[in-house]
Batch of 2 targets.
Target 1
Amino acid sequence: MSEGGAEAPGGLYHERQRLELCAVHALNNVLQRPCFTRQAADDICKRLAPDARVNPHRSLLGTGNYDVNVIMAALQSLGLAAVWWDKRRSLERLAPARALGFILNAPAGVSLGAVALPLRRQHWLAVRQLRGTYYNLDSKLPAPARIGGEAELRVFLRDFLSRGLCELFIVVPKAVEEAGTWLEPE
């Protein structure tokens, strides 16, 4: 079980940020249960680069900062897939109802306690729907933040992707990925 998870008001599972474990938190938040731990992510890193002296899929210090390959392998172990969203495509083509949720990646500042450092790291966060409402489940937030329905989700994602070096991954069952039904027909 992952540390730091709690059921937020409204029945949402929400893990809070610890170390550089945002990828683990994003996975658990999108899955809505404590499915992965730091150890599980480290084991995936070892499988992805078994002979590497310095593992390229996590922080040199071993505090997390896992890359997309770890997220994809973790989801695959559950029969799920992370489909990369091509930003050149209109978000109107996205079929959110066929997605389990979304994992987003964005540059974030680094701080040491209350001191902001002049560094940027990538940060993972999750978006998930519950009872018709989408929520931002960023582990840096004190609680889930309500986004709204599908129209508000598209606005949220459009705004997020417009910020530059941001990426969107649609978390779907393997069958949805293979059929390509995460995308509305043209």
Target 2
Amino acid sequence: MSETTTAIVTGSSSGIGLDIARAFLDQGANVVLNGRDGDRLAKAAAGLGHPHRIAQVPGSIGAAETGEALVRAAVERFGGVDVLVNNAGTFASKPFTDVTEEELDGYLNGNLKGTYLTTQAVVRRLREQGRGGSIVNIGTVLVDHALAGFPASAPVMSKGGVHTLTTSLAAELAAEDIRVNLVAPGIIRTPLHTGADVDSFGGIALLNRVGEVSEIAEAVLYLAGAAFITGHALRVDGGHVTGRR
């Protein structure tokens, strides 16, 4: 990355998204931050430093205007956009028959529709620029390897759509040198697990530990710059899907 690279990172006011934004900034890139809570987003931006290389766009990615505002901020502040990281979304465990219609709609809108709409806005701009670009989506290894003790059918279904969208767009956009990849995290230590003994999940991975947000950020940076990789889902799961200890 360099000072000429501009990345949009959705859901970047905390957790994985915040560390992804920090990683891009550490590499010298400009970053457009996004989060639903404007005050929380401003606090996160202040903590990152580098104010001259940060723009902030509060709003839910489930609304098309948020994606358009993210692109507009990247263009007006930094002259364009090169990378989109679709990180924003929600995820929680709940038994299948207890999931309400409102909760189901929330996962589909926030995780899948939001990713779709934001990507549309960015791809339109990438086409105008005519120099290609990189899109990295955040999925989950639970799409490939579910856990009986962690029922999460609604969020996993919505993330499954993100996995499928990644493959489809990689094929559709390849001729324009727009690469589309995905990072599939395993169990990661994030604010989503507040109040839970997250380390107790470490035993499901071959490496016998949970992951850290910095390890997801490293994978995102790699795929963002990997010029000969598209349509790939990179599992960052300590061997969760590969086998058992």
